Amino acid sequence: GHSEGKGGGGRSPLASGEETAVSEKSYKSANAWKTELEEEMVAYEALNYTLSESEAERAKLFNRPREELEHDSEKVHKLRWTLTFIIAIGTALTAVLITFCTQNLIQVKLDLGKTWIDMERDGSTFRGAALLIIIALCTAFGAVGALFTVFEPVAAGSGIPEIKSLLNGIMVKRSMRIKTLLAKASGVVFAVAGGLPVGKEGPMIHSGAIMGAGLSQGKSTTFGWDTRWTKFMDFRNDKEKRDFIACGSAAGVAAAFGAPLGGVMFCLEEGASWWHPDLTWRTLFCAMTSAFITNIFLSGIKGQTHWGILSTPGLLAFGGDNTNNFDFTAWEIPGFMFIGVVGGALGALFNLANEHLTLWRRRKVTGRLKRYVEVVTIAALVSLVSFGIPMAFGKTFCMMEEREGCPSREDT
């Protein structure tokens, strides 16, 4: 026994103390990790999309007599479709308002730049003053747009991940509030006007979802009003709210791209895990109505046509060919195939670079201040490249040569 203890086969008090210290350190580390995880999960909430078919359970859920629920089922069904129509109108008008404000801010920027360019030509200011004015204005627009995400952080980004999470049963808190809608819409207006490489399409899906959530519940946490005495109480459960959010998301896709079927397929394939046939018709109706109303209003706002002429199916425009020459020959098909292959390869390369850049930003660009400085810096660089390159080449021409004072290709 003496030799066994001396040879190290036994456990010394020191070794036991070290193990105790290690176990306590591991315990504290595990608790710290658990506390950090719990703090992160506070922003999320699990939803229950299983609505009981029992009349007694439904009467208990809505706190109303069973006979009253049976009598009002037809009225609730009609109200459900009416709300779907109102959500489509609200989403379309939001898209039109965002486009209208964005166009006016861009026009202010272009008019100011043209004024300073004319001053440079007249010799009343130094060369490069117009470029500095444009950079300052774009940077200011980007800075203002980023401020809205400081006051409402959930409004940052496209909003599509939040919508997909919600449609699958995980609610990101504050993502469905009117305050978030106002911050996102305002931020998009200034970001696009500032020339940042962002678009209105993703935020429109989030905006439509907020429309669906807010209008269907008949209450607002931001403004503190509630319509508890109305039929809206019948829709205050997770299942009904999810269905209206799906309708609003489809309306947002339709307003952005002019594709009602695309809106339905987005919700059906990319978004919701719970679906039923009646929801298919409601989302299609909501998306078609939103696309139609957006088309009517944008046709007059953009100034290219008159009100009522359906010439602008969505917010996104891929350009066009004014020559109306769409004929092609058989020998051009291999060229089209080559362009498709190159486009696919470049797209894969872009996705790879975007993934690595996102991971790098997640590690390095942390905190609100760093993210805010990042937005301002990118806005300045984008404006410098966009307006500096044409100025460096010294020759520019307008695509619309009929504009007054606009040089043509022959003049350059």
Description of the molecule:
- With 412 residues, this protein is mostly helical.
- Helix content is 67%, strand content 2%.
- The chain has helices at 2-6, 13-41, 55-62, 66-122, 129-151, 160-167, 178-193, 201-217, 238-257, 260-271, 277-301, 333-364, 368-393, and strands spanning 44-46, 170-172, 219-220, 225-226.
- The strands form 2 sheets. It has a two-stranded antiparallel ribbon with strand order 1-2. It has a two-stranded antiparallel sheet with strand order 3-4.
- Strand 3 and strand 4 form a beta hairpin.
- Helix 4 packs parallel to helix 9 (238-257), helix 8 (201-217) runs antiparallel to helix 9 (238-257) and helix 9 (238-257) runs parallel beside helix 11.
- The chain is globular.
Distance between the termini: 102 Å
Uncertain stretches of 5 or more adjacent residues: 1-9, 399-404
Number of strands: 4
Helix content bin: 55-70%
Residues in β-strands, percent: under 5%
Order of helices and strands: HHEHHHHEHHEEHHHHH
Oligomer: single chain
Q: How can the largest sheet be summarized? A: 2 strands, antiparallel
Q: Major sheet: order of its strands?
A: 1-2
Please tally the helical runs, counting DSSP H or I stretches of 4 or more residues: 13
* Radius of gyration, in angstroms, nearest whole number: 29 Å
What's the SSE blueprint?
Elements: H1 2-6, H2 13-41, E1 44-46, H3 55-62, H4 66-122, H5 129-151, H6 160-167, E2 170-172, H7 178-193, H8 201-217, E3 219-220, E4 225-226, H9 238-257, H10 260-271, H11 277-301, H12 333-364, H13 368-393
Antiparallel strand pairs: 1-2, 3-4
Helix pairs in contact: 4-5, 4-7, 4-8, 4-9, 4-11, 5-7, 5-13, 7-8, 8-9, 9-10, 9-11, 10-11
